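The records we work with from here on pair a chain with its fold. These numbers are not coordinates but entries in a learned vocabulary of local backbone shapes. To see the layout at work, look at the sequence and tokens printed below:
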Amino acid sequence: MSSSCNNSTSDEDHQLSVIDARKQRRMISNRESARRSRMRKQKQLDELWLQVVRLRTENRELIDKLNGVLERHELILQENNQLREEATSLHQTLQGLQVSNAFGVLNDTEEAPTKCR
């Protein structure tokens, strides 16, 4: 019986050894997987930071562009107002000239028959 007991203990030791080796390989594999996962995560984080920097720069450029457009828009509005005022003034001057010219024509027509008689 003792040899069968010895055999059984040897088999158990061998099984434990195999199980320990599997656990060891699994632990090493898990550590390597975790390391790769951390590296992927760090790479993603680095890429996101680069994207943040790029987007902030682009945003700043767009804001500067927008401010330039708004300044030009304001200048154009001022110029349009000046041109409208000038057009109104010229229109009034033209109407005044037409009215005085019409009076002159009327005066000329009133005087013309008397001159012809």
